[in-house]
Amino acid sequence: MSNKTYLELAKEQLTSPLDYILNSAKRLQITNCKETINAIGEEIKIEIDNINFQINNISYLEQIDNSKLELKRNNVDFDRLINKVLDDISHLTKIRQIKIEIDSHKSNEFSSDVKMLYTILVNLIANAIEFSYNNTTIHVVLFEGHDNFKFIVKNDGRGIKNEISNKIFDKFYQANDRVIRIQKTQGLGLFIVKNLVDFLQGSIEFDSKENGTTIFEITLPKL
Hints:
This protein is an alpha+beta fold.
């Protein structure tokens, strides 16, 4: 993998949240204020969610790089899945003051790999939040067909410049667009999304207008 080991990548991604949790634990030792304790508890939860997000991505990166992806077929409860995604990234929506609207057009349960679907959605929506304007709405839509299903994620923000549109799925690629980032990332999210979609024998397309609307559309077969 490039010139970084997985251990080095994990250290870069996890040192900051682990330090924050340690400092938060020290703050808990010197306060008896219930409001302060609750606030610190929420901060710790955010950092733990961040750690889980980073570990999950690094784990999938290692599996992708070494051709070790394995399919685990499950019945998908989309409502439960999307609620977990939204809970895990709720701190990001608060920073940008962004709303996420879910529109689900489905009639039956469908089968797929739940963990891979979670990873696809959490990375795609986190990416949309990162590059959205403040106080906007991200739309997430699920359409179910006879033998496939489709996810659409739509946001308003900086958009994707034409000259970098062929690079956004590259490993470690990060646009140098002076955006004020709310996540410490390594440019892995869309790379992982693309590889998981390919592994599931699906397709991913996007349409983007600079300083306008960006739409990602993922089509996956029912397994």
